[in-house]
């Protein structure tokens, strides 16, 4: 299928509740959902209204976000052989990881309640459900990596995460060399896979880089990309005279979940030393991503060169952003007056992303 109009669902906005710290501090709520996909920001010297495909307020459930954002359609398109991506963007502490993964549970703690599961787990369940209903012979595998201080690291490799080179080829575009891919056949298997990536037994130290600072006690210090590879062969019966390669047409799709590290102001987080270096690298890569989105939002005839090579993140997202992929952006924001500047920045970011079209 080839189209000049993007099949990607437009960006969705999720507004998290005020935290207990913000409430004690006396922060005002400056973000309000007006319904019909409209969000209003009202504060001193700032009064703006933004329109999106969907806006989820603080009371929205995880299921409502999954169904209302277009995530189910992305799963179905991945089964049809498309390359699909969902990424969560926003300030640190805005709820990106919760939206994608739900509450983070360690291997020794009880699993999260079903109602709290994030887009990832709900997509896995939908993927397996759809594959059974379609009667297709489905092969699923997963790869998981992070970009930490501009180094690409494999989170599924045995032992400490190893750094892998990022290559380019005319046929594959940008790709990670020697990245490990693991097969799975059940929800339990993919859940174990995620726990393996987040925990390193027996010490229980996290493999993905996280730290605590003034804005977030569990701040992701890297961008994480979990990719589900979907290979299906239709279960059909054809005459024996048909050559074997044509007997079972195959489709190969991908479903990629991108948990971006949060944008942050170093002064407000109180970061210093290694945390400051991490924050600067995070902000540089997010700036490169924003620059690419701004250029992609221009009409095709007026676009200049798209600088995907400016960061490892934009290289890996090149096809998702402006190539042949289908992409959903979930922008997470805080309603607090203390976070007004970052919230406005995220809303403008998402507004630009609405104008990006691809050719799936």
From TrEMBL:
Organism: Fregetta grallaria (White-bellied storm-petrel)
Name of the protein described by the UniProt record: Kinesin-like protein
Taxon lineage: Eukaryota, Metazoa, Chordata, Craniata, Vertebrata
Pfam families registered for this protein in UniProt: Kinesin
Molecular function via GO: ATP binding; microtubule binding; microtubule motor activity
Family: Belongs to the TRAFAC class myosin-kinesin ATPase superfamily. Kinesin family.
Compartment(s) of residence: Cytoplasm, Cytoskeleton
Keywords on record: ATP-binding, Cytoplasm, Cytoskeleton, Microtubule, Motor protein, Nucleotide-binding
InterPro entries referenced in this protein's UniProt entry, alphabetically: Kinesin-like_fam, Kinesin_motor_CS, Kinesin_motor_dom, Kinesin_motor_dom_sf, P-loop_NTPase
Kinesin motor domain: residues covered: 8-356
Gene Ontology biological-process entries: microtubule-based movement; mitotic spindle organization; spindle elongation
Residue sites binding ATP per the record: 90-97
GO cellular component, one term: microtubule associated complex
């Amino acid at each position: 299928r080839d189209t000049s109009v993007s099949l990607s669902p437009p960006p969705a906005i999720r507004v998290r509740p005020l935290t207990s710290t913000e409430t004690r501090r006396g922060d005002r709520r400056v973000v309000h959902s007006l319904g019909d996909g409209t969000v209003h920001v009202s504060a001193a010297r700032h009064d703006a209204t933004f329109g999106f495909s969907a806006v989820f307020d603080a009371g929205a459930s995880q299921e409502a976000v999954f169904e209302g954002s277009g995530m189910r359609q992305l799963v179905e398109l991945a089964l049809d052989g498309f390359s699909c991506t969902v990424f969560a963007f926003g300030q640190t502490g805005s709820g990106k990881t919760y939206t994608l993964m739900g509450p983070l549970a360690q291997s020794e703690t009880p699993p999260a309640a079903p109602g709290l599961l994030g887009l990832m787990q709900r997509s896995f369940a939908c993927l397996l459900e759809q594959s059974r209903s379609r009667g297709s012979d489905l092969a699923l595998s997963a790869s998981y990596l992070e970009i930490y201080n501009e180094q690409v690291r494999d989170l599924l490799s045995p032992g400490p995460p190893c750094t892998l080179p990022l290559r380019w080829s005319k046929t594959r575009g940008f790709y990670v060399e020697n990245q490990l891919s693991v097969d799975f056949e059940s929800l339990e298997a993919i859940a174990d896979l995620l726990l393996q990536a987040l925990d390193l037994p027996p010490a229980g130290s996290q493999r993905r880089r996280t730290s605590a600072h003034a804005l977030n006690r569990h701040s992701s210090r890297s961008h994480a990309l979990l990719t589900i590879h979907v290979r299906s062969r239709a279960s059909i019966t054809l005459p024996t005279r048909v050559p074997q390669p044509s007997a079972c047409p195959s489709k190969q799709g991908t479903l990629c979940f991108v948990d971006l590290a949060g944008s942050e102001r170093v002064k407000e987080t109180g970061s210093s030393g290694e945390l400051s270096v991490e924050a600067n690298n995070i902000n540089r890569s997010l700036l490169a991503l924003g620059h690419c989105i701004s250029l992609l939002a221009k009409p095709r005839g007026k676009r200049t060169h798209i600088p995907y090579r400016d960061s490892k993140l934009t290289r890996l997202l090149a096809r998702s952003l402006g190539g042949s992929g289908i992409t959903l952006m979930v922008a997470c924001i805080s309603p607090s007056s203390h976070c007004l500047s970052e919230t406005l920045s995220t809303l403008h970011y998402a507004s630009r992303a609405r104008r990006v079209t691809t050719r799936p």
